[in-house]
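Quick one: structure for this chain?
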Amino acid sequence: MLERSPIVEVAKKVCPAVITIVISKDLPKIEGFYFFPFGDQQLVFPRLKKEKEKTKIGGGSGFVVSPDGYILTCNHVIGDPEADYTVLLDPEHKYQAKILAKDPLVDLAVLKIEEKKLPCLELGDSNKVNLGETVVAIGNPLGEFEDTVSAGIVSGLSRKITAYGGLLLKATSLRGLIQTDAAINPGNSGGPLVNMEGKVIGINTAMVMGAQNIGFAIPVNYGKEILEEVIKYGKIKRPFLGVRYVILNQEISQA
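Got it. Here's what it folds into:
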């Protein structure tokens, strides 16, 4: 009798709490196209109506962290202030997401849906992650394939990258990331990276285009800090130094 992979049990435990985020926006309707000859080619431009309709423009992932509907995801997934975000637990359960807080410094965001007794994931300790340990990434790659499971190992720790992503294609500098060779694709952002106990150790955030199996996750301890602040204070509290500076010139230096 074949022995069942432990990844099967991890997937059964984790998948019910992984959610799909559908991104939609009011956009003009397309009623046809204009065709213009240009040399040997033909340029095509859409012919738009004045009225608008709700249109799906993207998708991402996230996961429930409390039975009363708190959700962790990536900031770049919900980065468009003019878009609407719908959370799908499954095809029959859809909720309008409320954005409670965003932290672009670590690319994390906290959402809330109005529901009780939800399945949720246990947050592990990313400080105890070991190089080479087996991990599982779960999410909604390409915004089409919910609950996609991929497995790999922790390939590196404390990585620093500059990532370009989200609907607005902003550049974000991220530090302290977990590198993994578990398959991470566009749409996986915000989904959990879990260990073999089913505990979240990271939040999937980026991949290297043109490379094979080089993906990155934000350490879950960053998310734990943010989540605690949002639940306690209703927002993310960040210290700042109230200092202003001017560049010295000869006139100022002699004053």
